[in-house]
Amino acid sequence: xxxxxxxxxxxxxxxxxxxxxxxxxxxxxxxxxxxxxxxxxxxxxxxxxxxxxxxxxxxxxxxxxxxxxxxxxxxxxxxxxxxxxxxxxxxxxxxxxxxxxxxxxxxxxxxxxxxxxxxxxxxxxxxxxxxxxxxxxxxxxxxxxxxxxxxxxxxxxxxxxxxxxxxxxxxxxxxxxxxxxxxxxxxxxxxxxxxxxxxxxxxxxxxxxxxxxxxxxxxxxxxxxxxxxxxxxxxxxxxxxxxxxxxxxxxxxxxxxx
Length: 258
What we know:
Helices cover 4% and strands 42% of the residues. By secondary structure, the protein is mostly beta strands. The strands form 4 sheets. Strands 13, 14, 15, 16 and 17 form a 5-stranded antiparallel sheet that branches.
């Protein structure tokens, strides 16, 4: 048997990492705003699940009145690190659990009027985040004002590097992208799936999509590809060029292409 005599109930999210099983379940709600407990089971010597922490934590400024976190997380392949996006109706906070400690790495807010506020959010706790195999790096893709950004974090030093992948001439990316993007391979509106680091942690692979009406009308389908980005170019002080986006799949644009 995979795990003998272990029954998990009311599980929201579950990750298997290096002989450890991590899962989340609903902990408590304050009206429509809820938080979740995250647990671990050691598969080498399975016993009762160990509760690691409750999220969002009491210290989170958005708990309980603004949070809309739904219990999802990512885990590094070695099981040392978990990443959670503490989303709210106005912002997202990037948290990391590492070496037994839950820490906030970053806080991001859309600022269309120079203020962090609003009654809705473009952020979701399943938004694309990549965790390096050893948990030392986290890459998060986010829409911030007029840009689609990649934010790269060192989970030990909390150093952050930011790279604007695509920048529009006006705010905001989530509403205006389709008014400005073309049909080039590197003109993508969003990262459509989970992002991944390469095993040697030098590349980040992402499934990107351009589903803007102009593209679908022209080619009969959204344009999707797997793109590779060199980690060394992120936040190095230079702007990314089209050649920095390596098209791994080179999918045909036309729906009728064989």
